[in-house]
Amino acid sequence: MTLNIGVIGTGAIGRDHIRRCSKVLQGARVVAVNDINRDNAARVVSDLQLDARVYDNGHDLINAADVQAVLVTSWGPSHEEFVLAAIAAGKPVFCEKPLAVTAQGCKNIVDAEAKHGKRLVQVGFMRPYDRGYRALKQVLTSGQIGEPLMLHCAHRNPTVGEAYTTDMAITDTLIHEIDVLRWLLDDDYVSVQVVFPRKSPKAFPHLKDPQIVLFETAKGTRIDVEIFVNCQYGYDIQCEVVGETGIARLPEPSSVQMRSGARLSTEILTDWKERFIDAYDVELQGFINDVLAGALTGPSAWDGYAASVTADACVAAQLSGEIVPVTLPARPAFYNK
Ligand code: NAD
Ligand code: NAI
Ligand code: ISE
């Protein structure tokens, strides 16, 4: 059987997910697209030579008779509305992060899904599907470096546009670490503090960049994450775990080592689309397979909510400079794996 997908939001990641659903993955085709900028949607259809209809609004797409599952890849503030509409229509929905831009928005989705009685939502947290993070988790669970005591992480983008604001370093960028580190450590955050180093002159005047986020977890592990979204040199994701008896690092993406011009060098990627390209393929193939099999198993609306509660605490910590508690309600049985 082939799953008919409708995609709302045909910007950078929407295009890339449409390409992957149409040209790379098995078991799905894109039959409907929508973007607030209609030309964006029409261009994707012609560029990728899709047999897909362009809709003037996302709700008509969700309710179209031939759309069996929905991908929400529009900008963050529009996610909640479309995910709630997909749940109301009883259709499975893959939503890019953030699930909603506030914890309350995510809670509204969790409540609607629980009321529906069956999981319909998967959130686009792809890092747990990345081979490198999976290998790192295997080392931790094998006990080879003992219990994790400290993590040193970095999330660096070469540049960001003028619309990117200081809180987006949390809600748009750090949100990946918030999700993946909770999964990696099998632990929850209890508090957070944000400190601001000397500002990079490469950042727009309104943006505080870089930032350092300091977490404490329930088991007492300390985590520092550097967010630096105008680092210029590349797209660079780092994660080092210091354990009781050793250190484990996230593997670098594979790249040819060169000896040339009196230098020993390896390439650094510059685009997030390339850095996690395999993980995006695996997460979306998982969504397609799960929808066809009738039960979703990927990152849930609860994971989206947990990340958002943590993000809210981080934003409060940005504003106050204080150590802010992170308080997450117990996970409802509905979301137990
Ligand atoms: P983008 O700005 O390139 O594309 C967003 C598209 O959505 C635009 O074409 C815009 O016109 C459209 N849009 C906005 N509001 C809409 C609405 N109400 N209805 C229909 N279309 C609408 O953004 P992007 O980089 O593709 O990011 C989109 C989403 O994907 C964001 O939530 C972002 O956080 C997420 N994202 C995730 C990753 C990841 O690594 N998982 C990477 C990039 C982006
Ligand atoms: P983008 O700005 O390139 O694309 C967003 C698109 O959504 C635009 O084309 C815009 O016109 C459209 N859009 C906005 N509001 C809309 C609405 N109400 N209805 C229909 N279309 C609407 O943004 P990008 O980078 O593609 O990000 C989109 C989403 O994907 C964001 O939520 C972002 O956080 C997430 N994302 C996730 C990544 C990941 O690694 N998982 C990587 C990049 C983005
Ligand atoms: C973007 O939306 C992503 O999700 C990328 O993975 C991240 O590195 C970037 O900072 C975000 O803006």
Would you kindly provide a written description of the structure presented here, covering whatever features stand out?
- There is one protein chain.
- The chain is of the alpha/beta class.
- The protein has two domains: about 5-125 and about 280-300, NAD(P)-binding Rossmann-like Domain (Rossmann fold); about 130-270 and about 305-335, Dihydrodipicolinate Reductase, domain 2.
- The protein is built from ten helices and 15 strands.
- The chain has helices at about 10-25, 40-45, 60-65, 80-90, 105-115, 130-140, 170-185, 270-275, 275-295, 300-320, and strands at about 5-10, 30-35, 55, 70, 95, 120-125, 150-155, 190-195, 210-215, 220-230, 235-245, 245-250, 260, 265, 325.
- Strands 12-11-7-10-9-8-15 form a seven-stranded mixed sheet, covered by helices on one side.
- The chain is globular and about 55 Å long.
- The protein starts with a strand and ends in a 12-residue tail after the last strand.
- 1,4-dihydronicotinamide adenine dinucleotide binds near residues 37, 78 and 124.
- (2R,3S,4s,5R,6S)-2,3,4,5,6-pentahydroxycyclohexanone (ISE) binds next to helix 7.
